[in-house]
Amino acid sequence: MTRAKQSIHGSWSSRLAFVLAATGSAVGLGNIWKFPYIAGEHGGGAFVLVYLACIAVIGIPIMMAEVMLGRRGRQSPINSMRTLAAEAGASRYWSWLGWAGVLAGFLILSYYSVIAGWALAYAFRAVGGTFTGATADGVASIFERLTGDPERLMGWHTLFMVMTMIVVARGVRGGLERAVKFLVPSLFVLLLLLDGYAMASGAFDQGLAFLFRADFAKIDANGVLIAMGHAFFTLSLGMGAIMVYGSYLPARASIAKSTITIALLDTLVALLAGMAIFPIVFVNGMEPGAGPGLIFQTLPIAFGHMPGGQVFGTLFFVLLVFAAWTSSISLIEPAVAWLVENRAMSRVRASVITGLTTWLFGLLTVFSFNIWSEFRPLSFVSVFRNATVFDLLDYLTANIMLPLGGFAIAVFSVWVMKRPDSVQELALGDGWAYRLWRVLVRYVTPVAVVIIFLNVTGLVDFSGFLGLSE
Ligand code: TRP
């Protein structure tokens, strides 16, 4: 069967453009907002170690698989999976993997946009000098005033969704590629600056110890699942975002090299963010387990006290918005690409439709922080005792849907797709590198996902074996 040489949606101008776009997708709120707060909630060091291990043994190999499937399929994930399944003589129901991804992307974006709205609001507060001289109590009340007000949250959420839809409507080169070129380098510089401040804060050692000294008594089975879920989340894996970006990748670019670069940059950003935040937490006597508000209640203190903090604070939150922006477009791109392919819609129309639906669903998250903040829908399940609707959405997508998607991608790439096809597409030759990838994706990844799932459900208890506390 003949396959298209290029996607109908266009393609990246070069491998570098793909690396930038995929890095733009990977680096986002996950690194700067989510990683520090979940590491804080799960005791630091041991959690970080499990997360790093998951990036190396699960994340990188799955990312290679996802890019490979996208580039070979050259369409939206739904249609790519159908084409590739036909090519391998397998069931057309593999396209359901694409559907599950569209659903996951939609659910994630619905809350992602609300949190990105917080960053937008903070950029405005920073310009206005609100943080100057701020104390821990002061920034806590700024945060509570914002999240306690559904109308304000809705306003910022709306603005962010509109921004996302505009870029998506403009398409692969005009929109997606242009947005990421300055972002990643500038974000890096700002994070280094914050790390400099943290180093001088007096609690840098304590912060580092929290982040890197692994004490396995502090992490339980659920913590391990959350660390694995975050490895998928932070690398944008398991729902087709990286697959759709791979479908715009020029035919000859190296998949392995690109993937490793992206994963390293992403990890570095997360660690730099953690190293900036925890010293500030400790020096101000705050709680590392403060939850989703963590960075919004720590970083403003740093900006409020450093020379030039008003400028740097503004820059930082603006960059955070950009980082979220280049991620959010990848969450919705699989759905938009499918609408364009199968419903013959223009990109503009497809963007408006998906954007409106996502916006509406985002209201669930908006209300989770105020009028529904006491609503605990699954309080009868012990791990969800304190979970709000937002917490549940996050848990369902990051810790369940993405690992399941990754599991299916792994199974398809090595058990269904013909070996010569993956050898050809990855273009690593048939040497040790290809074989290592194959062993990881064939055995290690699926087995790891299954063990971690079973351990959390309590059906099987590997905790003693893993040295965990529960
Ligand atoms: N990786 C992004 C972050 O860390 C979020 C994201 C973008 C994502 N695209 C995704 C997560 C696809 C899961 C799947 O902020």
Q: Specify the helix fraction band.
A: over 70%
Low-pLDDT regions = none
- Which molecules are bound besides the chains? tryptophan
Distance between the termini: 52 Å
CATH topology: Amino acid/polyamine transporter I
Q: Over the alpha carbons, how many angstroms does the gyration radius reach? A: 21 Å
Quickly give the structural class.
mainly alpha
Q: What is the count of DSSP helices, taking H or I runs of 4+ residues? A: 20
SSE string? HHHHHHHHHHHHHHHHHHHH
Q: What overall form do the CA principal axes indicate?
A: globular
How does the SSE layout of this entry go?
Blueprint: H1 15-26, H2 29-41, H3 45-73, H4 77-87, H5 95-127, H6 136-147, H7 150-170, H8 172-180, H9 183-200, H10 204-212, H11 221-234, H12 241-246, H13 255-283, H14 294-305, H15 309-342, H16 347-368, H17 389-416, H18 419-426, H19 432-457, H20 463-466
Helix pairs in contact: 1-8, 1-13, 1-15, 2-11, 2-13, 3-4, 3-10, 3-11, 3-13, 3-17, 3-19, 4-5, 5-7, 5-15, 5-16, 5-17, 6-14, 7-8, 7-15, 7-16, 9-13, 9-15, 10-13, 11-17, 11-19, 13-14, 14-15, 15-16, 17-19
Bound molecules: tryptophan.
